[in-house]
Write a structure and sequence with these properties.
The complex is a heterodimer. By secondary structure, chain A is α+β, with helices and mostly antiparallel strands. Helix content of chain A is about 35%, strand content about 10%. Chain A has helices at about 1-25, 35, 45-75, 75-100, 120-130, 140-155, 165-170, and strands spanning about 180, 200-205, 215-220, 240-245, 255-260, 270-275, 280, 290, 305, 310-315. In chain A, α1 packs antiparallel against α6 (about 140-155), α3 (about 45-75) runs antiparallel to α4 and α3 (about 45-75) runs parallel beside α6. Chain A is elongated. The two termini of chain A are about 35 Å apart. Mean pLDDT of chain A is about 80; it is low at about 25-40. Helices cover about 55% and strands about 0% of the residues of chain B. Chain B is built from nine helices and two strands. Chain B has a two-stranded antiparallel ribbon. In chain B, a hairpin with a 2-residue loop joins β1 (about 150) and β2. The longest helix of chain B is centred in the first third of the chain and has 45 residues, at about 1-45. The chains are: A alpha+beta, B mainly alpha.
Chain lengths: ~325, ~240
């Protein structure tokens, strides 16, 4: 990645070196009288405007570099968005200022038919070429190079999140044996919070709630209804079940729980349902998908009830959280 | 002297009130007993075929009603969900099968079998707090404007004809497929707030003049895109038509 960044930086620099000298060419002969004679206004040769452009380009470079630093440091999305948009806004300011103040605004109207007046055409082209401000563009060259390199780096940094190194991030989970379940406001979740047929969302105590593997949905069924696989007998004390809240189809948050009050009810039994595409997971059979597009069961979190009825994880999640990605073989 | 006179006055005033309260209690108890009897008679003719003569349920027909309380009875009867046409048909909102007096009798009878009473919906309610709780807990199925939705194998009903009392009851009962919520998840005051929010969305204040079906952000976004795209087209056209100086 670093080599690639360097290459892009060099390319940007080379492009600037190629483009800017052309603008400098008419520096040698720029008498102000000539354009005025033809009725075209001389461009405002403003040092002030040039300084503004240079400052904006340098600011753009600084903001783009800040994006790179923030991305590597793992900053919040808001910081990433703010730095990148600041860089682009400053670039826009630089280009707009350059276009308005440093480049001739004279407009040559070409009379029809154009091919019959080659001399006038040449005059207009000459005037337009002479209209460029005779300014020292070295500063702008440096500032443009800085901005270009930094923006290129900012555009390429997210590549670091792709590739083989990313799998580990997707598999990381804050759930370990003994991690307590807390509600969104940090209160401990107790077994008495749920009646049979109730459900709630819980998070791991002392871990970031934003992590994909953090939210679990806890629901309660009658212990007699459970049909858990053999290895998971101790996972659901008092009929309390916990599963990852992220649907294994497309990663939506599971928000629906259907709990039929009476066995005469038609349709499936107690099930978690994802509101995006109605993937339905039978909670009594360890969240096996029974309807909808999902094919993997929701990872289950083994539960234990500690003193005062507090719910605690009895171990890690049973599988990989979230939508399926390359290399996920389990079904 | 003044304090003695005041005490006498207070006693003279309090005595008849006290007597009246005792009499009212006795009359109330008697009335309740007769109401329970009347309710039991309606129960035997209308409900016992599925829930059993002793209200302990019949396997394959209907669940036991012991312990469900007046709250569940009031909800199912006042929304017309019970009695069902057939034991396996889904309970949906209908005009109530019984008049208000008979419902009161039945509710008194089911309530006498134990369980939570009818919740109070009196007290201050904040629709803005209700919006937050409703979005968190209810909107997944019922939609953010309580217009209803679907879950696998059932329909989550629209709440537009539900009264605040029925909403608070449903939160605690969890009718049909709905999950039920304990007081630690949704406390009584938040349940009232949710009911107040649902009341407020029955007649939404359409500031823009057009509610777009009150379906929430998806149609609103579509309209915004269409209007925005049309505006962009007009601007592009105007730019293209700008005359040369």
């Amino acid at each position: 990645v670093r080599r690639l960044l360097r290459l892009i930086g060099r390319l940007a620099l080379a492009a600037l070196v190629l483009v800017l000298p052309r603008a400098r060419r008419p520096q040698g002969h720029a008498p102000a009288a000539e354009p005025a004679q033809a009725g075209l206004p001389a461009p405002p040769a403003s040092r002030h405007g040039e300084a503004l452009v240079a400052a904006a380009l340098l600011g753009c470079g600084a903001a783009a570099a800040a994006f790179v630093v923030a991305y590597i440091a793992g900053a919040r999305n808001e910081v990433l968005g703010a730095s990148l948009s600041a860089a682009l806004a400053l670039l826009a300011l630089a280009l707009a200022t350059a276009g308005r103040g440093l480049v001739s605004q004279a407009r040559g109207v070409e009379p029809r038919p154009s091919t019959e007046h080659p001399r006038e055409e040449a005059d207009v082209a000459e005037l337009a070429a002479e209209g460029v401000a005779p300014l020292d563009r070295r500063r702008l060259l440096v500032a443009g190079g800085v901005a270009g390199c930094a923006l290129g780096a900012a555009a390429l940094t997210p590549l670091a999140s792709l590739g083989p190194g990313a799998d580990e991030t997707l598999r990381r989970s804050p759930w370990r044996r003994g991690v307590a379940l807390v509600a969104e406001d940090g209160r401990p979740v107790r077994a008495s919070d749920l009646e049979v047929g109730g459900f709630l969302t819980a998070f791991p105590a002392g871990a970031a709630k934003q992590s994909l593997a953090a939210p679990v949905v806890v629901c309660r069924v009658r212990p007699g209804e459970l049909r858990l696989p053999r290895g998971r007998k101790g996972f659901a004390p008092e009929g309390l079940l916990a599963f990852s809240r992220i649907c294994t189809h497309a990663g939506c948050a599971i928000a629906l729980f259907r709990y039929p009050l009476s066995p005469t009810t038609t349709g499936p039994g107690p099930a978690l349902v994802c509101p995006c595409h109605y993937s339905t997971f039978d909670v009594t059979r360890a969240a096996k998908p029974i309807s909808g597009p999902a094919v993997r069961a929701l990872p289950q979190l083994p539960l234990r009830i500690e003193r005062e009825g507090r719910l605690v994880a009895g171990g890690p999640l049973t599988g990989n959280v979230g939508a399926s990605w390359w290399g996920v073989r389990e079904r | 002297v003044t304090s003695i006179r005041q005490a006498c006055l207070a006693l003279a005033l309090a005595l008849p009130i006290g007597c009246a309260v005792t009499v009212a209690e006795a009359v109330g108890a008697g009335a309740r007993a007769s109401q329970i009897d009347a309710g039991r008679q309606v129960y035997v003719t209308g409900c016992a075929s599925c829930h059993g003569l002793d209200a302990r349920g019949r396997p394959g027909y209907g669940p036991s009603l012991a312990g469900v309380g007046a709250q569940a009875a009031d909800f199912y009867l006042s929304t017309g969900r019970m009695p069902l046409d057939a034991p396996d048909s889904p309970p949906v909102r209908k005009p109530p099968a019984y008049d208000a007096r008979r419902i009161a009798d039945l509710v008194a009878y089911i309530g006498s079998l134990g369980g939570p009473g009818i919740p109070s919906v009196r007290g201050a309610a904040r629709a803005n707090v209700g919006l937050g709780a409703f979005t968190d807990q209810c909107a997944g199925c019922h939609g953010v404007l309580a217009r209803g939705g679907v879950v696998t194998g059932a329909v989550a009903p629209s709440l537009l004809s539900a009264t605040p009392r029925q909403i608070v009851e449903a939160i605690r009962v969890g009718p049909y497929l709905m999950p039920r919520y304990t007081k630690r998840q949704i406390d009584d005051s938040t349940a009232r707030d949710i009911a107040a929010y649902v009341e407020s969305v029955k007649r939404p204040d359409d500031r823009g003049g057009w509610g777009i079906g009150h379906l929430g952000p998806v149609p609103e976004g579509m309209v915004a895109w269409l209007v925005g795209a049309a505006a962009l087209l007009v601007i592009a056209r105007l730019l293209g038509e700008r005359t040369q100086p």
